[in-house]
Design brief:
The chain has 282 residues and is α/β, with parallel strands linked by helices. It has a domain at 15-166 and 190-221 and 273-281: Vaccinia Virus protein VP39 (Rossmann fold, 3-Layer(aba) Sandwich). The protein contains 10 helices and 8 strands. The chain has helices spanning 15-22, 27-35, 45-53, 70-77, 96-104, 141-151, 172-183, 201-205, 226-233, 245-266; strands at residues 39-40, 61-64, 85-89, 109-113, 126-132, 152-163, 209-222, 269-281. An 8-stranded mixed β-sheet has the order 1-7-8-6-5-2-3-4. The protein starts with 14 loop residues before the first helix and ends with a strand.
């Protein structure tokens, strides 16, 4: 099986790839989120993060790697949060929708393009800093955590969500391995090798105090391969191999065939989804 070329940056942390392909728009995030609509119990990450923060309602909040801006938009619309809300993401494309939505509905949320390794705010700017399922995309994770702590006010609240190494190990992980083996590809980069709830606590403790972790476990259960095929399709731009459209079409057909075999054999496609939210203070 071929390996990544020496010195070649993995696409999962290649910022040019993230902004021009993987997250050039919010489409991939939407397709991935659709898979989790089939989980029981159903946990929505931004809702769980906000619950755990126990906000008063007037705090200044920065969401790092805010993606489509859901946490901040819903915090304003659903929770009536009155404090200053700021979101930043490295991709200008993924921010188009939240920027337009904030303008059109007068939500008064500041969305900016910025790198988590170099947050463009002064020291002690925010009461709350959040980072939801994004830290594994940052080349220098320690640097990003240092920056998040820097812009947080003394005794300010910090929340970071991430996956477990054991998450989606029954179907998705073997499926990636089967694709790599069948097509002679490099193995898909496992984001939890860069950052997971099992092994990253000490890294967070370098920059924050009073660290706690809340874990969530649910079951993905499908009676059709379609949501998983759609999810798998979003991984194309994060794989370290390059694919022609015809080659990727072959891969998706292979994925669909493998999933249909599981469905025929087991009656449903099921696997465990596990993630956690770290909470800390400065």
């Amino acid at each position: 099986m071929p390996n990544i070329m020496p010195g070649r940056k993995e696409k999962i942390v290649d910022q040019a790839n993230l902004t021009s392909s993987a997250y050039k728009s919010g489409e991939n995030l939407t397709l991935r989120a659709a898979l989790y609509e089939n989980t029981r119990p159903r946990y929505i990450v931004w809702e769980e993060v906000v619950k755990g923060l126990d906000l008063k309602g007037d705090e200044s909040v920065l969401d790092v790697g805010c993606g489509n801006g859901t946490l901040l938009i819903q915090l304003r619309k659903e929770k009536g949060h009155s404090g200053t809300l700021s979101g930043m993401d490295i991709s200008s494309g993924i921010l188009k929708r939240p920027i337009n939505l904030a303008d059109s509905q007068i939500l008064n949320i500041d969305f900016i393009v910025a790198d988590a390794q170099y947050i463009p705010f002064p020291d002690n700017s925010f009461h709350v800093v959040t980072a939801c399922h994004m830290i594994y995309h940052v080349p220098n994770i320690d640097r990003a955590l240092l920056e998040m702590a820097r812009v947080l006010k003394p005794e300010g609240k910090f929340a970071l969500s991430a996956n477990s190494q054991k998450s989606k190990s029954e179907v998705l992980k073997p499926l990636k391995e089967a694709v790599a083996k069948h097509f002679g590809l490099s193995m898909f980069p496992d984001a939890t090798r860069r950052f997971s709830i099992e092994e990253s606590g000490e890294l967070i403790r370098k920059h924050f105090k009073n660290l706690t972790l809340k874990k969530y476990r649910s079951l993905i259960s499908l009676n059709s391969p379609d949501p998983y095929v759609a999810y798998f399709n979003t991984l194309r731009s994060l794989w370290d191999d390059n694919f022609s459209d015809s080659k990727w079409s072959e891969i998706l057909k292979f994925v669909e065939k493998e999933l249909k075999e599981i469905l025929e054999r087991e009656g449903r496609i099921e696997e465990t989804n596990i993630f956690g939210i770290f909470y800390a203070t400065k």
